Amino acid sequence: MFVRPARSLTIAVAVIAFCFMVSIFEGGLHSYSRNRLSIITAPVHEAPPPPSRIVDFWAKWATVMDKAKPKIPPIKLNRPASVEGSDKATGERAPMQESLGLPEDDWKLLHESHSTLVNAPGFNETNEQASSLFSGAGVVTVAGGPYLPPAILGIRMLRKTGSNLPVQVFLQSREEYEPEICESVLPALNAECFVIQDHLRKDAPFKVARFQLKVLAILFSTFETVLYMDSDCMALRNPAELLESEPFLSSGFLSWGDYWKATEDPVFYKIAGMSDFPKGLPAKSSESGQMVISKKKHLNTLLLAAYYNVFGPDYYYPLQSQGAMGQGDKESFLAAAVVLGNPYYRVKETLGTLGYSDAKGEFHGGAMVQWSAAEEYASANTSDKTKPRPFFLHANLPKLNVARMLDEKKIYQPGTETRIRMWGPEESTRKIFGSDIERMAWNEMRDMACELNDTMKDFKGRTNICQRAQEHYKQLFETETG
Ligand SMILES: *[C@@H]1O[C@H](CO)[C@@H](O)[C@H](O)[C@H]1NC(C)=O
Ligand SMILES: *[C@@H]1O[C@H](CO)[C@@H](O)[C@H](O)[C@H]1NC(C)=O
Ligand SMILES: *[C@@H]1O[C@H](CO)[C@@H](O)[C@H](O)[C@H]1NC(C)=O
């Protein structure tokens, strides 16, 4: 299923030629990704229906999760956990004090509910079921509304790496479904839309929103192997490099770390049925903006992570983070793997930060850099002490929605007309990445502003975004070569 760079280039060329052929017929492109034989069909103007085998699978486990619903009132935080000393948090994680102060009766009840899920008949066998439910490898993201433009940027940047991995974009609801984007813009990029709500039965036992969507998008994707990326995250190298090598092949789960030290209350592991605080955990918490996961090895991990998210805001988010920075889904995936004794690889290299310094010399962080798990692993037992190369850029401040960046003046230093190179000077960018990735990203953002100004819901009705993006590119990058 994985394509090597040389082959993927050929495929990319073929896809471009094919899309060109299709577009001259002005037919819906929608059929392309679903059925290569019927080239011309009327646009469908609705999201593709989810495969019923996946809907049934989720309906079954959602019912079990509902039976496993925590039977105590929501957990209250006394105060957010301190992340002081995060810089020095390296090596193995040491347990914090039990600071939520959960009475024994309470955590025992939580434990009982948790067991209802992990001891449900067939729970661990879901991994063996994965091959009949899911297939192939691909990229999954959750987007919609103002998050759709950064997601499309991410897909366009992915194509620049030579990867033609198919992409599934999950929207929360029908209201977020944009027919032109989903039925012609994305299929031309070998990407398609799904609506998360369509996967949930009308009588679904619980509602889902926000952070909870991520694990469901991964579960509902038809791919067996998922590279999940937040809509504001982009791959800088061909993901085949990670998917086809160790440590992914044997672990089936790659996870990256955050800035902050881990702050779970150790009582979480008692609730999860472990007698001791687990050994070998990384000192830092997780940054789940990108993950690679194989359902053949981890479908039960994903189900347990879904449980932690469904009952996250009232129970498992405070148990796993205690209100520390970025509390949400971030710890749920690794925690689930650890609780089930499933393998994982956690990248050791500390994430990097890109940003710029303003006129007063103040630094403004804008993007996180995460490194190649494959290179780190390969050089681990050798004398090679070079750092692994950058693999992902998680550009969260600002989100790379070109229209909003222009309208909200995010392209200038605050209160001035001075244009910003968001990720630092050209020279240092080239040194870290081998090319000026900021220029590459702006090249795509400019083209998106010009191609999609009449199409993308979030771009419509704005003034001259195409010209303004062209001007920004011209002022900052046009004199560059190579
Ligand atoms: C699944 O595996 C976990 C971890 O080993 C175990 O605690 C649980 O009891 C197993 N579930 C079943 C139904 O066997
Ligand atoms: C490096 O050594 C460790 C400990 O012996 C081992 O677990 C790991 O698989 C080795 N890594 C490689 C790339 O050989
Ligand atoms: C979109 O951009 C194109 C190219 O600059 C321009 O011709 C067109 O008028 C723009 N549409 C809107 C609605 O601004």
Quick take:
With 482 residues, this protein is of the alpha/beta class.
Read across the widest sheet, the strand sequence of neighbours is 3-2-1-4-7-6-8
Small molecules (ligands, ions, cofactors) in the structure: 2-acetamido-2-deoxy-beta-D-glucopyranose
Molecular shape = globular
Mean pLDDT: 90
Total strands: the figure is 11
What fraction of the residues are assigned to beta strands by DSSP? 5-15%
Count of separate DSSP helical elements: 19
Residue runs with pLDDT of under 50 for 5 or more positions: 1-42
The span between the termini is 33 Å
Tell me what the CATH architecture of the largest domain is: Alpha-Beta Complex
Order of helices and strands: HHHHHEHEHEHEEHHEHEHHHEEEHEHHHH
Q: What Rg do the Cα atoms give?
A: 23 Å
The CATH topology of the largest domain comes to: Spore Coat Polysaccharide Biosynthesis Protein SpsA, Chain A
Structural class, from secondary structure content? alpha/beta
Q: Major beta sheet, specifics? A: 7 strands, mixed
Count of all domains: 2
What fraction, in percent, of the residue positions are helical?
25-40%
Assigned CATH class of the largest domain: Alpha Beta
